[in-house]
């Protein structure tokens, strides 16, 4: 089908751009021998899991449901980390996951009988207490008071019996330099455990597929860990897999005026791109400029009742009209996985832009998807 035939709102994942990212990640695997996993919390469009599996080793999950999804739809290496598991979750996870990371010694021991009787390799998430980001405390697992990872002061003298891996996740949309600094801090504090472990997982937050990312330093850091401590090295990026590889196409439904023209869209920040309000950030919009940069500046907002459901102010060469479509960029990641039907808003369709330029609607949602979750 052609783009004009797609319904709105719709998330469109761009296969060619996804492949471009995956080629970069695949090369890091080949150059260093590391294993790269899709962090499904960022992107779980399982229709493209077979494509992703051609380039990287597998997936990682934040709990049972994501782990099941990767097991059923990808079939590669399957890792999981959660701050806490129930007994029944653990009984299922040990059947479908090859690597399980625990957030506390209490959780490790609470489930010991189950994981000891399985083939899963078990790791501990550490907190290096080494922050490399400023301004986004909710994305900083090393921030004071963090519940994520075991601090050095709470680690035993040696890795507990049966533990084979070390996991840390401390970065968010960052380069290889903060990773290298973090690895240095981890070596200074946790080297005894690195020597005892078989694998290390460097978490996510690596913006590997972003232009200008220092891949040479990333590869040097991975090889250093692998060679110095004889470790298998894992990375579990989410964003880097589908960075800039998706759009949210929306239609202008009405235009009202209050100080500036306000476009009422069939897409919503609160429902369809919650990170715009949570981070917060202003998503890029195809063909637009900063406020005042082009002749017509408009506010883009949603048709929900939330006063703050505003995406941002953008300028245009030509005044947008009712019925026009607008395309937000970089909408594959942390969008579909976080959306909701607040206000009874319809969920956007999910579509694929194939490499040959054709479009395919992969999934359409309706009233049942709204109702089924409510009672
Ligand atoms: C444990 C863990 N691994 C991987 C990721 C993926 O991070 P990103 O999508 O920023 O690469 C996250 C994100 O929060 C995480 O918490």
Describe the protein in words:
This protein has 375 residues and is α/β, with parallel strands linked by helices. It has 2 domains: 3-11 and 246-331 and 339-371, Lyase, Ornithine Decarboxylase, Chain A, domain 1, CATH 2.40.37; 33-241, TIM Barrel, CATH 3.20.20. Helix content is 29%, strand content 23%. The chain contains 12 helices and 16 strands. It has helices spanning 15-32, 49-53, 64-73, 87-96, 105-110, 112-116, 176-196, 215-229, 239-242, 269-272, 275-278, 367-371, and strands at residues 10-14, 35-39, 58-61, 77-81, 99-102, 121-125, 163-167, 199-201, 232-235, 246-258, 260-265, 296-302, 310-316, 325-329, 349-353, 359-363. The strands form 2 sheets. Strands 1, 10, 11, 12, 13, 14, 15 and 16 form an 8-stranded mixed sheet that branches. Helix 2 links the parallel strand 2 (35-39) and strand 3 (58-61). The longest helix is centred in the middle third of the chain and has 21 residues, at 176-196. The radius of gyration is 22 Å and the shape is globular. The protein starts with 9 loop residues before the first strand and ends with a helix. The mean pLDDT is 97. It binds pyridoxal-5'-phosphate. Pyridoxal-5'-phosphate binds next to helix 9.
């Amino acid at each position: 089908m052609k783009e004009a035939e797609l319904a709105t709102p719709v998330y469109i994942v761009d296969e060619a751009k996804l492949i471009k990212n995956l080629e970069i990640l695949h090369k890091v695997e080949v150059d260093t021998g590391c294993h790269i996993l899709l962090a499904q919390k960022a992107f779980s469009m399982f229709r493209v899991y077979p494509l992703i599996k051609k380039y990287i080793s597998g997936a990682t999950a934040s709990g049972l449901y994501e782990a099941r999804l990767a097991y059923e739809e990808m079939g590669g290496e399957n890792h999981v980390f959660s701050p806490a598991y129930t007994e029944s979750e653990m009984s299922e996870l040990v059947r479908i996951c090859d690597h399980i990371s625990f957030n506390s010694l209490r959780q490790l021991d609470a489930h010991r009988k189950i994981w000891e009787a399985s083939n899963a390799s078990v790791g501990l998430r550490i907190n290096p207490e080494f922050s490399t980001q400023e301004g986004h405390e909710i994305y900083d697992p090393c921030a004071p008071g963090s519940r994520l990872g075991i601090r050095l002061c709470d680690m035993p003298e040696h890795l507990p019996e049966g533990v084979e891996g070390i996991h840390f996740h401390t970065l968010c949309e960052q380069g290889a330099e903060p990773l290298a600094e973090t690895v240095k801090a981890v070596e200074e504090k946790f080297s005894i455990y690195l020597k005892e472990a078989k694998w290390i997982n460097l978490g996510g937050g690596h913006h590997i597929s972003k232009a200008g990312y220092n891949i040479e330093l990333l590869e040097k850091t991975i090889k250093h860990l692998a060679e110095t401590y004889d470790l298998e090295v894992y990375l579990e990026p989410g964003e880097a897999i589908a960075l800039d590889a998706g759009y949210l196409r929306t239609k202008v439904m009405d235009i009202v005026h209050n100080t500036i023209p306000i476009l009422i869209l069939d897409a919503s920040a609160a429902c369809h791109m919650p990170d715009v309000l949570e981070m917060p950030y202003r998503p890029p919009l195809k063909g637009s400029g900063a406020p005042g940069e082009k002749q017509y500046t408009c506010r883009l907002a949603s048709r929900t009742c939330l006063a703050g459901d505003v995406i941002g102010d953008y300028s245009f060469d030509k005044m947008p009209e009712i019925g026009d479509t607008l395309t937000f960029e970089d909408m594959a990641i942390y969008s579909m996985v976080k959306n909701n039907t607040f206000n009874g808003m319809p969920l956007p369709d999910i579509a694929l832009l194939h490499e040959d330029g054709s479009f395919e609607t992969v999934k359409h949602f309706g009233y049942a998807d709204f109702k089924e979750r409510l009672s």
